[in-house]
Amino acid sequence: MSLLVGIIGKPNVGKSTFFSALTENPVEIADYPFTTIESNKGVTYIRAKCPETDIGRKCNPKLGKCVSGVRLVPVELIDVAGLVPGAHEGKGLGNKFLDDLRRADGFIQVVDSTGSLDHNGINVGRGKVDPLSDAEFVQNEIGLWLAGIISDGLIRNLRKLESEGGKLDAVIAEKVSGLGIDPKEVSAAIRNAGIPSNLKEWDDQVTLRLSKEIIRLSKPGIIVASKADKIEQSEAAKLRERGALVVSGDYELVLRRASKAGLIDYFPGNDYFTIIDEGKLNIAQKEALKKVSDFLKANNGTQTQEAVEYLVYDVLKMIVVYPVEDENHWTDKNGNTLPDAILMKQGSTAIDLAYKVHSDLGEKFIRAVNGRTKRVLGRDYQLQDGDVIKIVAAH
């Protein structure tokens, strides 16, 4: 899988409902802390314009599917146990939580829009807690977790660095090498965090500041306020003004289950659905779907699908590229049209794509060919969203 997104937050905020709505995986959902003990893993799909509409021939995806020219590109999700204050010291299920996030490329932090839960996920009454107060303590816990990794033997390494005239970037990059963090992101974090050059000025606060900046750059995230169906429009507006995406995982789950049961026609991300056969619905189901329909119109959909797409496209800065083996017919060696849709970081090059497809293609790269223009491209060609690319490699 090309991308892994971690769904994080304190217990009981609706992470598992959000996860289940996106993946359609059955998971335990209950109104008490630590419902999730073992991490839930699944696959969701983000929408992209498929080039099949340009070539006029139906595509044959290996993964995901394509509906009326909309390609559904897979993204892996991991829903981890709730995070509580002191998690970096092992409180709650902290150690397991943080270990599960090592591979994540980015985070979706779910908060409870109703403001009913304290930092341990215990219900203290509607509106008693600022929903966005979670953001600070969760980010602090992740920062402290990384600071613990960086701090281990750091002063000894820094003294050695000082005596040998080495580079701080290399020392820190080695410390976080097992977390999928690019050394370039470490270098940028050191610059941004204002790290002192004098070893005597280095303390725990410096390490924490650096850790938070490394996380911000290497594993960025968004805040999603769940349970939007349980708050007023005015409350939702205030949360949006403060930078949160307001969603209803519950209603998205209702829609996807109803669609799977053949009761309605619904495409994830739409702000409407169509009832297939009203005769199959009982009175309670009709009333529930009417309530959901009113919510969709007022909120431009459940915003669940949009939240993941915003993270992937706008925050993680990904594009979708279509590698092929025949640049004229846009097929693989078996004649499948546009079989692969690969997520690549903006700024990636033709050689990056070659390595992504297969290490042999990268090592034996000769050139690339643009399937649209048929132009020959060098290894440094910067990929564009929607590109159809053939990689030519030595035999």
SSE blueprint and pairings:
Elements: E1 4-8, H1 15-23, E2 40-49, H2 52-55, E3 65-67, E4 70-79, H3 94-100, E5 106-112, H4 133-151, H5 154-164, H6 168-175, H7 183-192, H8 204-218, E6 221-226, H9 233-241, E7 245-246, H10 249-260, E8 264-265, E9 274-275, H11 283-299, H12 304-315, E10 318-324, E11 342-345, H13 350-357, H14 359-363, E12 365-370, E13 376-377, E14 388-393
Parallel strand pairs: 1-4, 1-5, 5-6, 6-7, 10-14
Antiparallel strand pairs: 2-4, 3-4, 8-9, 10-11, 12-13, 12-14
Provide structural commentary.
With 395 residues, the chain is of the alpha/beta class. Among the domains are: 4-39 and 80-142 and 221-310, Rossmann fold (3-Layer(aba) Sandwich), CATH 3.40.50; 318-393, Beta-grasp domain (Ubiquitin-like (UB roll)). The chain has helices at residues 15-23, 52-55, 94-100, 133-151, 154-164, 168-175, 183-192, 204-218, 233-241, 249-260, 283-299, 304-315, 350-357, 359-363, and strands at 4-8, 40-49, 65-67, 70-79, 106-112, 221-226, 245-246, 264-265, 274-275, 318-324, 342-345, 365-370, 376-377, 388-393. The strands form three sheets. Strands 1, 2, 3, 4, 5, 6 and 7 form a seven-stranded mixed β-sheet that branches. The chain has a five-stranded mixed β-sheet with strand order 11-10-14-12-13. A two-stranded antiparallel ribbon has the order 8-9. Strand 12 and strand 13 form a beta hairpin. Helix 6 (168-175) crosses helix 7 (183-192) and helix 7 (183-192) crosses helix 8 (204-218). It is flat and about 80 Å long. It starts with a strand and ends with a strand. Mean pLDDT is 88; it is low at 27-37.
